[in-house]
Design goal:
heterodimer, A: alpha+beta, five-stranded antiparallel β-sheet, 8 helices, 8 strands, B: mainly beta, 2 domains, eight-stranded mixed β-sheet, six-stranded antiparallel β-sheet, 25 strands, 47% strand
């Protein structure tokens, strides 16, 4: 008690009060100012820059407020900054990966290959982008799992942006028997496209003979649709094509391999005369 | 049961639906049943594409359990009100119309092309009216209007037209007529492969015969320019008598109401290989 009463002099209590007020007002002001920056960029239709700007502004202001609070509490900032310099060198050596992610993040944002809300495929993960941060991109996968992909990995790997363009092509590879009537297959594709209002009239359905294989003819049937609801559309088209092929009597084939087993007699074991 | 039957009268407007009763609207291929319950509207919609000439409004009718092919929605509120408003509106995307093959407008000519458009229907309840359901009378096929799959706009594919006069146009109750005036002031003919009508920017009118019309659209190709200027009139079409505006445009056009559209409203024939 005597220690507390000796420490808490009226000057120190006043300094603590000032520091508390600076801290509270500073944090509130930092949130408001960061929000303004974020909203200004969001209005320009740049959601990921908005999130990033909000964070940079908030943490910069928070650092400033912390410095003021420490100063108010009587800390010698010169000594702190000196220590911080040494600490920075140490942290710099220890955080090369983070620095690499940070630089990659800046490139990703500048490149604008994808934005928050797009669905991308990176490595084995496919999902909607929830945020593009300085160190990582966060995805919500189709099975509702959060995946954090480091920016450096994204920069190095091949990224597919599935929702960049408003329309997409749905490809259905099919193998038919070599003696199939291809005009029937064409008719089946046209009929499926005509029945489904989601199949775009223009660009229209495409019919490609890809190659002759060991088992028959490889066809590629394609229709276009808008990107919204594409997964369901794809399933419906595949179902409809299967039904149409069955109805038209077009024989599809699956790869087959014929194995012959020949039994050989063991000549050595043959009875001698 | 007092049944009010309307035939050939406008199928849109305000209708009084008593509580626990059902209203039936058969408009072209669309069969709409709206059941008013104390705290919710139950709306069942079904399409019968074999019947397209029907106009029949019946209130009240017996509510029958919707078939599995119907889409049923329920809209809840504290207490439903008597008024049910039916409003035709234009579709939410442009209409892309394909003229017959090798269609062209002669040089220094002005022609008016009439296009029929299946309207959408909105149901509102109460006062002020609150949207209960919106549905297309016919689900038109999607299409893309643009030079490449990268740039362009989604639209609905219209039927292939040979552009008869409005009297010869086969119209059903769910159709609106859009007049497109094309002026070709150039010394060469203007071939047209595709025409895009910006439906979300047009108003919808009805005439004294309860026929639906859109705002007229005009397009001018200048002699020295391959671009054409699109103009959407705010006046009702001159061909229609005793018109009244029944729905506003979904979107407002750009300030000038004149846009460069040769590449977007009209698509000329693709160059053929010699």
């Amino acid at each position: 008690m005597s220690f507390l009463s000796a420490y808490l002099t009226p000057e120190r209590i006043a300094a603590l009060l000032r520091a508390s007020v600076i801290l509270v007002l500073g944090v509130v002001a930092a949130r408001i100012i960061a929000g303004w920056f974020g909203q200004a960029l969001a209005r320009k239709g740049r959601p990921q820059e908005s999130i990033l700007a909000r964070r940079i502004v908030f943490y910069s202001l928070l650092a400033l407020v912390s410095t003021m609070v420490l100063h108010e509490l009587g800390f010698h900032l010169g000594v702190l900054f000196g220590a911080a310099g040494i600490l920075t060198v140490a942290i710099g050596f220890a955080s090369q990966t983070s620095a690499s992610n940070l630089v990659s993040g800046i490139f990703l944002i500048a490149e604008r290959s994808f934005v928050v809300g797009d669905t991308i495929q990176v490595g084995e993960h496919t999902g909607e982008i929830l945020s593009i941060d300085l160190l990582s991109v966060k995805l919500r996968t189709l099975d509702n799992i959060l995946v954090r992909v480091p920016n450096e990995e994204i920069i190095k790997s091949r990224v597919k942006n599935i929702t960049h363009f408003p329309i997409r092509r749905c490809d259905v590879p099919v193998q038919v028997a070599i003696d199939s009537d291809l005009s029937k297959a064409r008719r089946a594709l046209s009929a499926v496209a005509a029945r489904n209002p989601q199949c775009l009239v223009d660009p229209g359905p495409e019919f490609h003979v890809v190659r002759f294989t060991d088992n028959g003819i490889a066809l590629l049937l394609s229709v276009w649709a808008r990107r919204e609801g594409f997964a369901g559309f794809q399933t419906k088209v595949r179902e409809d094509l299967r039904d149409a092929f069955l109805k038209e009597g077009i024989p599809t084939v699956v790869p087959q391999m014929v194995m012959r087993y020949e039994e050989k007699r063991d000549e050595r074991a043959a009875p001698s005369a | 049961m007092n049944e009010i039957v309307r035939r050939a009268a406008p199928w849109w407007g305000n209708f009084a639906v008593p509580e626990s009763q059902c209203a039936a609207f058969d408009v072209g291929p669309l069969e709409i049943r709206a059941l008013r319950q104390p705290r919710q509207w139950v709306i069942a919609v079904e399409r019968n594409l074999a019947l397209t000439d029907r106009i029949l409004v019946r209130i009240p009718v017996d509510w029958q359990e919707p078939r599995s092919t119907a889409t049923v929605s329920r809209v809840m509120s504290r207490a439903t009100q008597e008024t049910l408003r039916v409003q035709p509106v234009l579709p939410d995307r442009p209409l892309v119309v394909s003229p017959p093959p090798r269609f062209a407008i002669a040089s220094r000519e002005t022609v008016v092309l009439y296009v029929r458009i299946p309207v959408w229907i909105r149901l509102f309840s109460g006062d002020p009216p609150a949207l209960v359901r919106e549905m297309p009378s016919v689900r038109m096929r999607d299409t893309w209007s643009g030079p490449t799959p990268k740039e362009g706009e989604l639209g609905y594919a219209g039927e292939e037209h040979d552009f008869p006069s409005p009297d010869e146009l086969p119209l059903a109750p769910h159709h609106a007529v859009c007049s497109v005036r094309v002026s070709n002031r150039a010394p060469v003919f203007l071939p047209i492969e595709e025409m895009r009508i910006p439906l979300p920017q047009l108003s919808l009118y009805s005439d004294s015969a309860s026929r639906l019309w859109t705002s007229p659209v005009s397009l001018e190709r200048e002699p020295d320019n391959d671009l054409a200027a699109l103009h959407v009139s705010e006046e009702p079409p001159a061909e229609a008598q005793g018109t009244a505006r029944i729905s506003e445009p979904r979107l407002q056009l750009e300030r000038s109401r004149i846009v460069r559209v040769f590449g977007s409203l009209l698509r000329p024939h693709r160059e053929e290989n010699p």
